[in-house]
Write a structure and sequence with these properties.
It is built from 15 helices and 16 strands. By secondary structure, the chain is α/β, with parallel strands linked by helices. The protein has two domains: 261 residues, Alpha-Beta Barrel (TIM Barrel); 107 residues, no CATH class. Strands 4-14-13-12-11-10 form a six-stranded parallel beta sheet. Helix 6 crosses helix 7 and helix 10 runs antiparallel to helix 15.
């Protein structure tokens, strides 16, 4: 049911097809994040219009509200949110990691307090898998522990625990129509990451995720870890770099053999009035755009850019109209999806490795406001 076929390579970069029950994913692919069964401010039709093919939802949040059993009884995530294409759910491990002040970790699992009402809950590998099976996404994650990347001693403890939890996740899984990905951990220590990559690969899960990056380490450390990890992973399984999604991170990740990415960044920037553009990330609230008749990006084919001016979008922001967030989200997500389309084309014609520096220069300005 789940098969990954590499269709072209350009050094370590590759493009391929990952088959799922809800359609084929053409990789490398960027997934918009729909934390609570919705990509903020957008409808499924918006997502289709920007050529999104994969959406991620959040196990921790959906467990707390509306409840995974309710989602199951409503026909699963695809039917509940009316998204017919492939979906991915995380394990809840990163969200539990972020609740440092209210959670207690032991070898069996994690006890934590809800950020909604303070109630106490417990996740184990078996519980995380059961929740994800109720939610019904095509791709699900083994329960893991994400640690402070700079604490090598604890990263070793968390990595060993992640390995034990990965084995328990594999044993707990019942549904055959979901692809379980094991997760590589180990902080920014190359030796730990190599050990983790080899262990997770040995579990023969249909895909492998790389977790615990973009959590405070430097870009150079991230690249070093990817350079260690991806060569140790099987060629015939997709590689998912969790929670990473700046344009330059996508380019650098593909260069190092990553196939799947997700990040809240495009929609979060939209809610803070920022837009990706050739000249750099734009603060669309700036008064300089008050009479600007240009679209956000004259090269972009999204609804926002083919229909509206910068002046109009700035007006919506100043007037606090909700449409501003929708239009900026449409544009920012389409910008990254277009980037991935360009990358796939370059890999197919064998030019990606030589064009990557040009792409990095073009998109580097979007690391900061123009």
């Amino acid at each position: 049911m789940f098969q990954f076929t590499v269709t072209a390579k350009n050094n370590r970069a590759r493009t391929g097809i990952f088959s799922t029950p809800h359609g084929d994913l053409v990789t490398p692919v960027f997934a918009p994040v729909g934390t609570q069964a919705t990509v903020k401010t957008l409808t499924p039709e918006h997502l289709k219009s920007i050529n999104a093919s994969l959406v991620l939802s959040n196990t921790y949040h959906l467990y707390l509200r509306p409840g995974d059993e309710l989602v199951r009884d409503m026909g699963g995530l695809h039917k509940f949110m009316q998204w017919p294409n492939p979906m991915l759910t995380d394990s809840g491990g990163f969200q539990v990691f972020s609740l440092a002040k209210t959670r207690k970790i032991d070898n069996d699992g994690v006890t934590f307090k809800s950020h909604i009402d303070g109630s106490t809950h417990r996740f184990t590998p078996e519980k995380s898998i059961a929740i994800q099976e109720n939610l019904g996404a095509d791709i699900i994650m083994a329960f893991d522990e994400c640690s402070d990347p700079n604490d090598t001693a604890y990263s070793k403890i968390a990595m060993d625990r992640t390995h034990r939890w990965a084995e328990r996740s594999v044993n707990a899984k019942v549904r055959a129509d979901q692809a379980l990905f094991g997760i590589v951990q180990g902080g920014v220590n190359p030796d730990l990451r190599a050990e983790s990559a080899e262990f997770i690969a040995s579990l023969n899960t249909p895909g492998i995720a790389i977790g615990g990056l973009s959590v405070g380490e430097t870009k150079e450390e991230m690249h070093t870890i990817l350079d260690v990890v991806t060569p140790l992973l099987p060629e015939d399984r997709p590689r998912y770099l969790m929670g990473v999604g700046t344009p330059e991170d996508l380019i650098n990740g593909v260069l190092r053999g990553v196939d799947i990415f997700d990040c809240v960044l495009p929609t979060r920037l939209a809610r803070h009035h920022s837009a990706f553009a050739p000249e750099g990330r734009l603060n669309m609230m700036n008064a300089t755009f008050a009479r600007d008749e240009r679209p956000i990006d004259e090269t972009c084919d999204c609804y926002a850019c083919t229909t509206f001016t910068r002046a109009y979008i700035r007006h919506l922001i100043v007037a606090k109209e909700l449409l501003a967030g929708s239009l900026l989200s449409i544009h920012n997500l389409r910008a990254l999806i277009r980037l991935m389309e360009e990358i796939r084309s370059n890999i197919k014609d064998g030019t990606f490795e030589t064009k990557a520096p040009i792409l990095l220069e073009r998109w580097g300005n979007n690391a900061k406001r123009a």
